[in-house]
Structure formats: structure tokens, C-alpha cells
Amino acid sequence: MIRTLLVDDELPGREGLRLRLAHEPDIEIVGEAADGSEAVALTRSFEPDLLFLDIQMPGTDGFQVLDAIAGEHLPMVIFVTAHDEHAVRAFEVGAVDYLLKPVGMDRLRQALERVRHATARDRRWQQGERVAALLDSLETGPQASSYLRRFAIREGDRYRLLAANDVDWIQGAGNYLELHAGSRTALVRMTIREVEGRLDPERFVRIHRSTIVNVESIREIVPEWHGDSEVVLRSGQVVRMSRTYRHRLFPRDDAER
């Protein structure tokens, strides 16, 4: 089942979607939200697979909802709106589709087919995660580390294994991660919060809401006047460290301030 949350400040809009989705046997509506703040709370509570998300709502708009839950659990998103001027930005933030009100049944089903294809793709990603977990479990003994040691990277009909310690830095992108290892970049299905909890904290440090670095890959850190810093890696890549996360690399320094 595709667990779905409806978000629209107009009740008729939610009712119309609910009636149309009642004919889709694999769609389960787990909740409805009438504004952006409620949408954020329900998304964190229910962790749905899919959001039907309005854009213009009182207070927190649809894009702000996605920004608030970025790096946590980010569902697939279908924007449903009466305004067509936000379409480019919607796809830039990874929306599955963009529907204009009033939503016709044919157009809705087309969007749902995209969701189903994405769901099938996610299941293939999860197979790779199980492969890596199985290999880790085979190596686990009384003295073995419980931290993630490798990622399974899907390449066509096979998986390539990437040692976690070979990863220089990680960029979060919703429910996916970009793993940067030297000149290679790979994509895995996992949130930044999930991977942070599974990596060795002595080696991997979160320096930004959406960035984790391998401390062994850091060449230098360049502070900036406003409190943020540039972290220069041995590869030459520069990533940003937010002052909010500065204590992760400099706990004593911050304690003395």
C-alpha cells in the first residue's frame, strides 16, 4: 500500500482527491492537513509514502513544508495547485508530478503511475541495502563494530559495494544520499538522519543540515566572519559547515566561548 497524506487548506479540494483516490486499491489515505504546519507535524508522525501537497496556504506554504522536513522523512510529492507558475520550482525540489486544479481523473491516474514506478524503483534500492546488511551481519562477531561498513550501489542489474571509509562526504537530498568518494558519485536511498545514526561518529561528522564529512578527508577549515566555515577536502572539494554544527568538530572550542 502507498500511504498517502492530503494537504490542502480548502476542504473541497481534499474531499475531491479523497473521492477519486477511493478507486485506487493501492492508495491508503492516512491523514489530512489543512495547513502547512499541520502537514509538517503529520508527516513526521505518520511518515507517509506520498504527499498530495497544495502550494499556496495560509502561513507555511508547500515549499516551506518540504524545507521543514528535508533530511528527515521526505515522501514522494505530487503538487496540486490552482497556479501554474510554480511548476519549474516544483520539479527542482523533486516532485513526482504537478497537477492543476480541478484535477481530472485521467491526469490523476497518470501521476499515480509515476508514483508506482518510483515505488518499484525504491524497492530495488532496498534490495541493495539488504545485500549490504547481510554482508555486514556475516562479519559481525563479539568484537565487531556495529557501524555501517559498506554501501550497496545499484548499477543496472547488479550492485557495486562501496566501503564507507572510502566516502569523503555525503550530501542529503530528501530520501536519497549522494555519496562522494574521490571522483566518483553514487546515489543510495537513505536520509541524512538515518545514515548519521549508522556511521562511526569518530570518523563521520555532520557539519550541515544536509552534509556529513569524513574527518580523514579534511585538509583544512576556513572560518568566515558570520560564523560558518568552508571545509576543504583533500580532493579539493569545498563544502560548507554551518555554525549550528560547529561544535561537532570543535566541541572544546565552543565550550570555552
TrEMBL record:
One annotated GO molecular function: phosphorelay response regulator activity
Domain Response regulatory: start-end pairs: 3-116
Keyword Phosphoprotein among UniProt keywords: yes
InterPro entries: CheY-like_superfamily (IPR011006), LytR-like (IPR046947), LytTR_DNA-bd_dom (IPR007492), Sig_transdc_resp-reg_receiver (IPR001789)
Modified residues annotated as 4-aspartylphosphate in this record: D54
Superkingdom field: Bacteria
Domain HTH LytTR-type, chain residue ranges per copy: 151-246
Record key words, sorted: Phosphoprotein
Name used for this protein in its record: Response regulator
Source organism phylogeny: Bacteria, Candidatus Eiseniibacteriota
